[in-house]
Design goal:
With 410 residues, this protein is α/β, with parallel strands linked by helices. The chain is built from 15 helices and 17 strands. The strands form 4 sheets. The protein has an 8-stranded parallel sheet with strand order 5-15-14-13-12-11-7-6. It has a 4-stranded antiparallel sheet with strand order 1-2-3-4. The radius of gyration is 21 Å and the shape is globular. Bound molecules: zinc ion (ZN). Zinc ion binds next to helix 13 and helix 15.
Length: 410
């Protein structure tokens, strides 16, 4: 069922290889490499997964990273990244990248934002300077950043919101999705690593690291634009949003507007209800989730892609996910614990260091604490997804629910 999406330039293809119940194991081909799905995408907000060198991310088996358009637009600026060959060249990352549209950050980091039909006016959280994002400018920024997968500009509906407000917000997102697609179709060949665009780099070309372009890249390959389903917590509006977003037509679909403060049970319900309206032959991406148990569960529902700051952010606060439940490494009871953080984890932290040492590094506020904690948490998330994918490939419908233990911290 290999399927090419996009009429002209070949950008991504998605192939479902195995199924178990609603879950699918698939393969997503992008201009910068292949992604085995379901996949967890670590978040590299400002072109870095905090504390992790890119070679370690490769060693961990990260196949796709997420970058945040809002942050990169403010600093270092899209033009700087574009001149370096896009994010791949700038951050020396040869594998796939996805950028969000900037919409979610504008909504979550800006209390003074003003939304109009045209777009959103907001102030930089760095220096208070005024800025404006529209569907067109958000596409322009994401084309300049040059991720393999980019997202339509949407309004993330706040929680709670009444039905009238949720519907109006969904309608705005649909209009913005059309504008996003129109701009993208007219400008997609301006991506910094596109075959037709090398001249734009001019004399810079020779200085761009080899990561800027994948040798296997067909000459006409470019980015893919995914649509985003909104509709708040209203299942009927979710259905309508899904159907009308599909009418506009995208090579992949995201479920946005979750993890905005709703109860977790509601998150699951919305995901499950929305998935059934999304095409089975296109990748489905749930934005901004979740715990290890949740990502395994959502994969079992048929979600192919997920991203979340949780493993990296929690790591910096000394909260570690293990096969035996959550560990808060700051606790005094680990002070003389010679055992590994997680006896069932094969990551280089668990192979080498004791809980006592990790606890000491954290208590001493050492930089290495953040590095090692992040490394383990990412490894745990990626291993979780690999186990889930393996179970799906074997057709084990219930195999993956037991692959993650959700025991609370003892
Ligand atoms: Zn580990």
């Amino acid at each position: 069922m290999l399927q090419s999406q996009g009429k002209e330039a070949m950008s991504t293809t998605f192939h479902v290889e195995g199924r178990a119940g609603s879950a699918r194991a698939g393969r997503l081909l992008t201009p910068h490499g292949e992604i085995e799905t379901p996949v967890f995408m670590p978040v590299g907000t400002v072109a870095t997964v905090k504390g992790m060198p890119q070679d370690i991310l490769e060693e961990l088996g990260v196949q796709i990273l997420l970058g945040n358009t809002y942050h990169l637009y403010l600093r270092p600026g899209v033009e700087t990244v574009r001149q370096m060959g896009g994010l791949h060249g700038f951050m020396a990352w040869p594998r796939a990248i996805l950028t969000d549209s900037g919409g979610f950050q504008v909504f979550s980091l800006n209390e003074l934002r003003k939304v109009s039909e045209e777009g959103v006016t907001f102030r930089s959280h760095l220096d208070g300077s005024p800025h404006f994002f529209s569907p067109e400018s958000a596409m322009q920024a994401q084309i300049g950043l040059g991720a393999d997968i980019i997202m339509a500009f949407d309004e993330c509906t706040e929680y709670p919101a009444d039905r009238a407000r949720t519907k109006a917000s969904m309608e705005l997102t649909l209009r913005w999705a059309e504008r996003s697609k129109k701009y993208f179709e007219e400008h997609k060949n301006e991506v910094p690593w596109s075959g037709t665009q090398c001249s734009v780099l001019g004399s810079q070309q020779t200085k761009i690291p080899r990561f800027a372009r994948n040798d296997k890249l067909p000459g006409d390959s470019t980015q893919s634009l995914f649509g985003i389903v909104q509709g708040g917590m209203d299942l009927e509006l979710r259905k309508e949003s899904a159907e009308r977003t599909i009418e506009i037509g995208f090579p992949g679909y995201a479920i946005g507007g979750l993890s905005v403060g709703e109860p977790r049970e509601r998150t699951r319900e919305v995901i499950e209800a929305t998935l059934e309206h999304l095409p089975a032959d296109k990748p489905r991406y749930v934005m901004g989730v979740g715990t290890p148990e949740e990502i395994a569960e959502y994969a079992s529902l048929g979600v192919d892609m997920m991203d979340c700051v949780l493993p990296t952010r929690a790591a910096r606060h000394g909260l570690l996910f293990t096969s035996e439940g959550k560990v808060s490494i700051k606790q005094a009871r680990y002070a003389q614990d010679p055992g590994p953080l997680d006896p069932n984890c094969g990551c280089r932290v668990c192979r080498r260091y004791s809980r006592a040492y990790l606890r000491h590094l954290y208590a001493s506020n050492e930089v290495l604490a953040q590095v090692l904690n992040t490394l383990h948490n990412l490894s745990f998330y990626l291993d979780t997804m690999r186990r889930v994918r393996h179970s799906i490939s074997l057709g084990e419908e219930s195999g993956f629910s037991s692959s993650v233990r959700s025991r609370p911290e003892p």
